[in-house]
Amino acid sequence: MPNDILESVKDFNTITIFRHVFADMDAIGSQFGLKYYLESAYPNKKIYCLGNDCPVSQRNNVHMDVVDDEVVASSLAIVLDTSNAARIDDDRYQLAKKSIRIEEWIDDKASATCELLALYLQEKKANIPLQSSLMLYLGLTADNIRFTTNNVRSATFDAAKYLFEQGVDVTKVE
């Protein structure tokens, strides 16, 4: 069971979100899907996605934020879609006041980090903005190759259904 992210978020004015190097769509989708949700739920908080821009972020017209070390040092760092610390794209997560580490999110049965986030937000009965649900859906379907991998499970479809109910137009998703 992961730490309660939303409870931790309430304690910080600044949130930094990290992911792995050589980001794929699940990394970018989970990072920005969470950012967009948090921005809508907590409009007075500063929320940043950190790491290097990459072809996947550029293709999806999202760009990493640039902040100084002091911003990171005052933040809650959330690290997503990363199997170990050496693969985190920006090692400044270590400066944060508090980190929610990837070990708390490991679920070897999940098809994607976006699946885990969608299920978490569904459990919290969160209404998420379209921009957030789209990023999560893109990451979900990219990592499980549109529901064709052997780690697709009924919970994967529950996550997709929740994102669909939040407004994703699946006919426009590439």
Outline of this structure?
The protein is of the alpha/beta class. The chain has helices at residues 5-10, 25-41, 55-59, 69-73, 113-123, 130-143, 154-165; strands spanning 14-18, 46-49, 76-79, 98-100.
Kindly state the number of beta strands. Answer: 4
Main β sheet profile? 4 strands, parallel
Rounded average pLDDT: 93
The fraction of residues assigned to DSSP E strands is 5-15%
Number of DSSP helical runs: 7
How are helices and strands ordered from N to C?
A: HEHEHHEEHHH
Radius of gyration: 15 Å
Pick out the low-confidence regions: none
Structural class: alpha/beta
The portion of residues assigned to helices is: 40-55%
Within the largest sheet, what's the order of strands? 2-1-3-4
The global form is globular
What gap, in angstroms, lies between the N and C termini? 32 Å
Q: How would you sum up this structure, described in words?
A:
- There is one protein chain.
- The protein has helices at residues 5-10, 25-41, 55-59, 69-73, 113-123, 130-143, 154-165; strands spanning 14-18, 46-49, 76-79, 98-100.
- By secondary structure, it is an alpha/beta fold.
- Helix 2 runs antiparallel to helix 6 (130-143) and helix 5 crosses helix 6.
- The model has no long low-confidence stretch (mean pLDDT 93).
